[in-house]
Design goal:
The protein is an alpha/beta fold. It has 3 domains: about 70 residues, Arc Repressor Mutant, subunit A (Orthogonal Bundle), CATH 1.10.10; about 80 residues, no CATH class; about 90 residues, D-Maltodextrin-Binding Protein, domain 2, CATH 3.40.190.10. Helix content is about 45%, strand content about 15%. The protein has 11 helices and 9 strands. Strand 1 and strand 2 form a beta hairpin. The N and C termini lie far apart (about 40 Å).
Length: about 260
């Protein structure tokens, strides 16, 4: 392997910084001190020869290079998790009882809290907590995993529920258009017309994503199609960081950017 590639712990730290918006938050999520996280980050930047994180008084933000590396890191970590799961299966490990697949937005913004609440409720009832294996993917892949029996339970977002499958609505969300500070759209105070939305060059999710499906379906209702994407990324977190770093506007779940909206 190239000497420029950080180890998995280092990649996990970078993804944590993107997710939590600070080195301290990433450190807590990884169970290390902030000093250790800062030292590890400096070592990663020295190893890659890139400035990956811009430090500031209000937190830490990925640079454009950092956004790209985190996007690759998320894929590598997901693959490492799959390999780990496969190895456990080969060893005959049956501790993981429930296989849950979720779309990326749901996996990032809702599932962690749900799993904590599930464990707390079961422990409060004196029951053995259900062991859960979580796989994050796009909505199309989640549906296929449930159909194939790979997943016991799937969570997706979209305009309509998958066909020929038992389902229930559990929450509602909305997509909002976000832009980098200083971008012309950030100063606009009137809503965009559908044809204006169709003309936007966006930072977007890949095909098969529920987020993208909602946008494309909404435009089709007006006889329009989505314009070409400037860049396609596979997670809402990566898109958020790309926009913050100056990429083109994007449509994201309100849940994903709730803290950004609250802080202005």
């Amino acid at each position: 392997m190239s000497s420029h590639v950080p180890d998995l712990d280092g990649l996990q730290l970078l993804v944590g910084i993107a997710r939590h918006g600070s080195i301290g938050g990433a450190a807590r999520a990884n169970g290390i001190s902030q000093q250790a996280a800062s030292e590890r980050l400096r070592a990663i930047e020295a190893q890659t020869g890139l400035t990956l994180v811009q430090r500031g008084a209000r937190g830490s933000r990925l640079t454009q290079a950092g956004v790209v590396v985190v996007e690759w890191a998320a894929r590598l970590l997901a693959l490492a998790d799959e390999i780990d799961t496969a190895i456990e299966g080969l060893r005959g490990d049956r501790n993981r009882e429930l296989s849950v697949w979720a779309s990326m937005t749901i996996a990032e913004s809702l599932i962690p809290r749900w799993l904590v609440l599930l464990r707390q409720r079961q422990q409060g009832q004196g029951r053995r907590p259900t062991a859960v294996s979580l796989t994050a993917s796009n909505s199309d892949n989640v549906v296929e995993a449930v159909r194939a029996g790979t997943a016991h339970l799937g969570f997706v977002e979209g305009v309509q529920a998958p066909k020929a499958m038992r389902h229930t609505d559990i929450a509602h969300d909305e997509l909002i258009l976000v832009a980098a500070a200083g971008a012309p759209l950030s100063r606009r105070r009137t809503p965009l017309a559908p044809d204006e939305v169709a003309e936007l060059a966006l930072t977007s999710r890949e095909r098969g994503s529920g987020t993208r499906e909602v946008l494309e379906t909404s435009l089709r209702a007006h006889g329009l199609t989505m314009g070409d994407s400037v860049v396609e990324l596979t997670t809402a977190t990566a898109i958020r960081e790309a926009v913050l770093a100056g990429s083109s506007p994007a449509f994201l779940s309100r849940r994903v950017v709730a803290r950004d909206l609250d802080s202005g």
